[in-house]
Amino acid sequence: MHRRVVVGALVLGVAATIAVASVALTAPEAQPFGPPIGPRMAPDTGAGELLVVVVGGVYPTRAEAEAMNEQMTFGDLQGYYVVPVAQFQGFEQQAGEPGDFALVSVFRTEEGAREFAEMAAGFGHPATILPERVRSLGGLYAGLGQEAHPDGSGPLLGPIEESVP
Fold first, then answer.
1. Is 59 helix (H, G, I), strand (E, B) or coil?
2. Domains identified in the chain and CATH numbers
3. pLDDT digits over 51-96, tens only?
4. Is the predicted pLDDT of residue 114 greater than 90, yes or no?
5. What share of the chain is helix, strand, coil (3-state, %, to 5)?
6. What pTM was computed for the model?
Protein backbone atom coordinates (compact mmCIF):
# COMPACT_ATOMS: atom_id res chain seq x y z
CA MET A 1 0.00 0.00 0.00
CA HIS A 2 2.78 2.42 0.92
CA ARG A 3 4.53 1.73 -2.39
CA ARG A 4 1.34 2.61 -4.35
CA VAL A 5 1.03 5.92 -2.53
CA VAL A 6 4.67 6.82 -3.25
CA VAL A 7 4.37 5.86 -6.95
CA GLY A 8 1.07 7.75 -7.23
CA ALA A 9 2.60 10.85 -5.64
CA LEU A 10 5.58 10.69 -8.01
CA VAL A 11 3.32 10.34 -11.06
CA LEU A 12 1.16 13.22 -9.85
CA GLY A 13 4.26 15.36 -9.19
CA VAL A 14 5.72 14.69 -12.65
CA ALA A 15 2.35 15.44 -14.31
CA ALA A 16 2.05 18.72 -12.39
CA THR A 17 5.61 19.71 -13.36
CA ILE A 18 4.90 19.01 -17.03
CA ALA A 19 1.67 21.03 -16.89
CA VAL A 20 3.38 24.03 -15.26
CA ALA A 21 6.28 23.89 -17.73
CA SER A 22 3.98 23.76 -20.76
CA VAL A 23 1.97 26.76 -19.53
CA ALA A 24 5.17 28.70 -18.85
CA LEU A 25 6.41 28.07 -22.39
CA THR A 26 3.24 29.40 -24.00
CA ALA A 27 2.38 32.26 -21.64
CA PRO A 28 3.06 35.74 -23.02
CA GLU A 29 6.10 37.46 -21.55
CA ALA A 30 5.06 39.93 -18.88
CA GLN A 31 6.18 43.53 -19.29
CA PRO A 32 8.79 44.02 -16.57
CA PHE A 33 7.59 47.51 -15.62
CA GLY A 34 4.00 47.46 -16.83
CA PRO A 35 2.59 49.23 -19.88
CA PRO A 36 4.12 52.50 -21.10
CA ILE A 37 3.01 55.62 -19.25
CA GLY A 38 0.93 58.17 -21.13
CA PRO A 39 -0.91 58.06 -24.42
CA ARG A 40 0.50 56.12 -27.35
CA MET A 41 1.41 58.55 -30.12
CA ALA A 42 1.40 57.77 -33.83
CA PRO A 43 4.89 57.79 -35.35
CA ASP A 44 5.75 61.21 -36.80
CA THR A 45 6.67 60.94 -40.49
CA GLY A 46 6.88 64.69 -41.10
CA ALA A 47 4.65 64.39 -44.17
CA GLY A 48 4.87 67.57 -46.24
CA GLU A 49 7.80 68.97 -44.25
CA LEU A 50 11.26 69.82 -45.53
CA LEU A 51 13.64 67.66 -43.51
CA VAL A 52 17.38 67.21 -43.06
CA VAL A 53 18.42 63.64 -43.92
CA VAL A 54 21.45 61.73 -42.67
CA VAL A 55 22.18 58.84 -45.04
CA GLY A 56 23.96 55.65 -44.03
CA GLY A 57 23.80 54.06 -47.47
CA VAL A 58 21.60 53.39 -50.49
CA TYR A 59 20.81 49.82 -51.60
CA PRO A 60 19.00 48.16 -54.51
CA THR A 61 16.65 46.08 -52.32
CA ARG A 62 14.99 46.29 -48.92
CA ALA A 63 16.65 43.00 -47.92
CA GLU A 64 20.14 44.38 -48.61
CA ALA A 65 19.37 47.57 -46.70
CA GLU A 66 18.00 45.63 -43.72
CA ALA A 67 21.00 43.27 -43.71
CA MET A 68 23.39 46.22 -43.65
CA ASN A 69 21.33 47.97 -40.98
CA GLU A 70 21.61 44.92 -38.70
CA GLN A 71 25.39 45.19 -38.91
CA MET A 72 25.42 48.86 -37.87
CA THR A 73 24.94 48.94 -34.13
CA PHE A 74 24.58 52.16 -32.16
CA GLY A 75 24.78 50.72 -28.65
CA ASP A 76 21.41 51.04 -26.92
CA LEU A 77 20.23 53.67 -29.41
CA GLN A 78 18.27 53.28 -32.61
CA GLY A 79 20.48 54.17 -35.54
CA TYR A 80 19.23 54.19 -39.09
CA TYR A 81 15.80 53.34 -40.46
CA VAL A 82 15.22 51.43 -43.71
CA VAL A 83 12.96 53.47 -46.01
CA PRO A 84 12.18 53.62 -49.72
CA VAL A 85 14.08 56.51 -51.32
CA ALA A 86 10.83 57.57 -53.01
CA GLN A 87 9.56 58.58 -49.56
CA PHE A 88 11.56 61.82 -49.83
CA GLN A 89 11.15 64.17 -52.79
CA GLY A 90 14.62 65.30 -53.91
CA PHE A 91 16.48 62.45 -52.22
CA GLU A 92 17.61 60.62 -55.37
CA GLN A 93 19.05 63.78 -56.92
CA GLN A 94 21.16 64.53 -53.83
CA ALA A 95 22.19 61.03 -52.72
CA GLY A 96 24.31 60.39 -55.79
CA GLU A 97 23.86 56.62 -55.51
CA PRO A 98 21.36 54.44 -57.37
CA GLY A 99 19.03 52.29 -55.28
CA ASP A 100 15.47 51.93 -54.10
CA PHE A 101 16.06 51.72 -50.32
CA ALA A 102 18.20 53.74 -47.97
CA LEU A 103 19.39 53.76 -44.39
CA VAL A 104 18.39 57.16 -43.05
CA SER A 105 17.64 59.12 -39.94
CA VAL A 106 15.74 62.38 -40.47
CA PHE A 107 15.73 65.61 -38.50
CA ARG A 108 14.03 68.98 -38.44
CA THR A 109 17.16 70.84 -37.36
CA GLU A 110 20.66 70.98 -38.81
CA GLU A 111 22.03 70.62 -35.29
CA GLY A 112 20.16 67.35 -34.70
CA ALA A 113 21.43 65.95 -37.99
CA ARG A 114 24.99 67.06 -37.25
CA GLU A 115 24.94 65.48 -33.78
CA PHE A 116 23.61 62.21 -35.19
CA ALA A 117 26.22 62.17 -37.98
CA GLU A 118 28.98 62.71 -35.40
CA MET A 119 27.60 59.88 -33.26
CA ALA A 120 27.39 57.54 -36.29
CA ALA A 121 30.97 58.39 -37.24
CA GLY A 122 32.00 57.67 -33.65
CA PHE A 123 30.62 54.16 -34.06
CA GLY A 124 32.49 53.84 -37.36
CA HIS A 125 29.37 54.05 -39.55
CA PRO A 126 28.92 56.10 -42.72
CA ALA A 127 26.88 59.27 -42.25
CA THR A 128 26.29 61.78 -45.02
CA ILE A 129 24.05 64.79 -44.48
CA LEU A 130 22.27 65.65 -47.72
CA PRO A 131 23.20 69.19 -48.82
CA GLU A 132 19.59 70.41 -49.01
CA ARG A 133 16.38 69.60 -47.19
CA VAL A 134 14.06 67.08 -48.86
CA ARG A 135 10.27 66.94 -48.71
CA SER A 136 8.81 64.03 -46.75
CA LEU A 137 5.94 62.40 -48.59
CA GLY A 138 4.95 60.46 -45.46
CA GLY A 139 5.29 56.72 -45.24
CA LEU A 140 7.59 54.90 -42.85
CA TYR A 141 8.88 56.36 -39.59
CA ALA A 142 12.47 57.50 -40.02
CA GLY A 143 13.47 59.00 -36.68
CA LEU A 144 11.63 62.29 -36.11
CA GLY A 145 11.24 63.20 -32.43
CA GLN A 146 14.74 62.13 -31.38
CA GLU A 147 16.28 65.59 -31.36
CA ALA A 148 16.13 68.37 -28.81
CA HIS A 149 13.80 71.32 -29.30
CA PRO A 150 15.83 74.44 -30.18
CA ASP A 151 14.43 76.24 -27.11
CA GLY A 152 15.71 73.47 -24.81
CA SER A 153 12.24 72.49 -23.57
CA GLY A 154 12.59 68.78 -24.39
CA PRO A 155 12.25 66.66 -27.51
CA LEU A 156 11.21 68.31 -30.76
CA LEU A 157 7.79 66.81 -31.46
CA GLY A 158 6.47 69.02 -34.25
CA PRO A 159 7.36 71.18 -37.23
CA ILE A 160 9.59 74.22 -36.90
CA GLU A 161 9.82 77.25 -39.16
CA GLU A 162 12.70 75.78 -41.20
CA SER A 163 10.83 72.55 -41.91
CA VAL A 164 7.55 74.09 -43.06
CA PRO A 165 7.51 74.98 -46.78
1. strand
2. 50-163 (3.30.70.1070)
3. 999 999 999 999 999 999 999 988 888 899 999 999 999 999 998 8
4. yes
5. 35, 20, 45
6. 0.73
Q: Is the pLDDT of residue 136 over 90?
A: yes
Residue type, 48: G
Q: Give dist(CA 94, CA 37) in Å, integer.
A: 40
Contact 107, 144 (CB under 8 A): yes
For 53, phi and psi rounded to 5 degrees?
-115, 130
Q: Among residues 53, 25, 67, which one has the least CA distance to residue 136?
A: 53
**83 strand-pairing partners:** 102
Look at residue 39 in the predicted model and tell me its pLDDT: 67
Dump strand ranges (E) for the chain. Answer: 50-59, 81-84, 88-89, 101-107, 128-129, 134-136
Residue among 100, 97, 101, 102 nearest 53 (CA): 102
Q: From 107, 145, 122, select the one nearest 75 (Cα to Cα).
A: 122
The rounded distance, in Å, linking the Cα atoms of 95 and 144 is 20
User: Of all residues in the chain, what percent carry a pLDDT higher than 70?
Assistant: 78
